Amino acid sequence: MQNETLTRVRGVQSARALPRDQSPGEVVSALADTLHDFIARNDRAIDDINSRLAANTVGGARRGDSDTPGSVRAAQESFGRFAKTGMAPKAAMQTDDDSKGGYLVQPELEKTITRRQADLSPMRRLARVQTTTSGEYQIPLADGGVDSGWVGERQARPETDGATLAMLTITAHEIYANPAITQKMLDDAVVDIGAYLSDEITLAFDEKEGDAFVNGNGVNKPRGFLQYPTATDLDATRARGTLQFRQTAASGAIAPDDLLSLLYDLRAGYRAGSVWLMNSATAGVVRKLKDADGNHIWSLASTPGELPMLLGYPVEIDEGMPAVAAGAFPVAFGNFQRGYIVVDRLGIRVLRDDLTNKPYVHFYTTKRVGGAVHDDNAIKLLKIKA
Questions:
Q1: Number of neighbours of residue 250 by Cβ within 10 angstroms
Q2: How many CA atoms are closer than 13 Å to the CA of 296, on its beta-carbon side?
Q3: What backbone phi and psi angles, to 5 degrees, belong to 94?
Q4: Which pLDDT belongs to residue 109?
Q5: Cα separation of 314 and 23, whole Å?
Q6: Contact, 294 vs 250, CB < 8 A?
Q7: Is pLDDT above 70 for 260?
């Protein structure tokens, strides 16, 4: 009878029959030979993989590496060819609806457009962004946590209440842009048409989406956080989907203490990563405020590109926020990453129309996006007293 030693380490499958009278040193030597064979095979496999990757390199970027400058540029050039001629690579011509058809923007260019939107829109940058391949995105929410209790050593342990779950469903609504270019401009190729159109689409979508994430009523558009019910009740006492607000002490004005109180209305667990949100006019008002010692509560950014600070937290400017007025909510403070979610359905589609409005060629562009408050404890509002 023989002993059998089986070595299996990430691809090593080598069974070697060893005589019963083989010494321990000989067993170790046999195992070492097996491992040496595996290493040699593994090195050859790695060399082969590297060779394949090198063969797939185009312009310094691997195929499928969709975030590289070369792949983005190629996608933009393909989009430009479609804009000029109406023809596109067969792989790019897709349809979500057979009655409409259209040019489905390549993933590389779609990522670039979405990323630039995030640079322009504070809410896209601040909120949690989730992509989906369906028209709806669902998130389970706990209405209450699992209960617990104190007991003595020999007391009975009765069953505790469990959490109850609700489902938040966010619908991705259709948004469109319809930029136009003259046929002569397309023919002369004075500008990079692909880059020009992607710029126009980015700006058009950013303006509408940014406002909807703040003020949208939820009808055929995202529901903005200012469109939710509000109450002065504390966390855990308000109805689900209701945001807490604090009213200013004085009518028609903001005082430093109003902002300080609002800051501490947000519980400590949410304050890390929180920001102030207001428009430029409100920022101009708040920047002048001073504390009891005569010091401004607003701190200017120390270096270009940094955000100003208010009471130790960054200030983001969103022109969709209302101005200071009786009954308005001009200031929000919160952790928007936890409080608000943006849902993007994958796919931006472009229909080229060179017939409806000659000599202009229109590029009817659509995408689908939704938005909703995810955690109503994460965003607090300041209301101006009438």
A1: 11
A2: 12
A3: -130, 170
A4: 79
A5: 71
A6: no
A7: yes
φ, ψ for residue 298 (rounded to 5)? -95, 130
CA distance 256 to 289: 6
Contact 110, 347 (CB under 8 A): yes
pLDDT over 90 (residue 268): yes
| Distance separating alpha carbons of residues 136 and 171, to the nearest angstrom | 4
Backbone angles phi, psi at 306, to 5 degrees: -85, 160
Interval 127-165: pLDDT, tens? 999 999 889 999 888 765 556 778 888 888 787 666 567
CA dist., res. 110 & res. 34, Å (int): 50
Place of tokens 């509002």: 381
Q: How many CB atoms lie within 10 A of CB 339?
A: 24
The C-alpha atoms of residue 159 and residue 148 are separated, in whole angstroms, by 9
Query: CB neighbours of 208 closer than 8 A, spacing ≥ 6?
Result: 175
Structure-token pair, residue 347: 């796919």
Q: What average pLDDT does range 42-58 have in this prediction?
A: 51
Of residues 105, 80, 101, the one with CA closest to residue 92: 105
Q: Is 192 helix (H, G, I), strand (E, B) or coil?
A: coil
For residues 16-36, give the mean pLDDT.
61
**Residue count of the chain:** 386
Is residue 261 helix, strand or coil? Answer: helix
Residue-wise pLDDT tens digits, 75-106: 878 888 888 887 765 444 443 443 445 677 77
